[in-house]
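Issue 218. Parser rejects a valid record. Input:
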Amino acid sequence: MADGAIVGTIVGGLIGFLSSAGNDVLKNRRESRALAHSFRGAITSLIEIAEARKYDAVLQSHIQHIQAGNPKIVLRIRASRDYVEIYKRNVDKLGALKGDLPELIPAFYTYVNSLLEDVDCLARGDWDSEGDAFFLTAYMTMREMLQKVRDLAQAIRNEVDLRYPEKTWATRTAELISASRRPPE
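Output the parser choked on:
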């Protein structure tokens, strides 16, 4: 009889442990998914803002202007918002993300920060005394970094879509079951 009580206690404890562990796993998956989609949304927004403001075209125009033998035009734009806030608040959670996201996201924000530093230097006039050749190189480098930011953003979006699809197996299964129960039209 005592053996049955011991076995019952062990089985009950094991069931409780597995239930708790399963809940923790599900919670971590939900949090990881939410974090990945938050980064995807923020990064997509940054790229859309840059495209709407035509930063690449402006840089290309300034490059062509200098290459045509004209004097430099100093780009004066200000980045007065914290465009990397989501990254700063969640950098300690990147390890919970799947695939290449823990590597891609910091790379993206490092390039964004570098571009913002260049924009700040231009806005403050730190480079005003530099010559046309300096500005030509600076603008070309900024354009290359902007392209790298776009490439990293696309890689992040692709990785999030691959690792955290909008519809999980369980969601698709529930939809199929629900659809099969509907009366034909």
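Fixed in the parser; the record now loads. Residues 21-25 have pLDDT under 50 and may be disordered.
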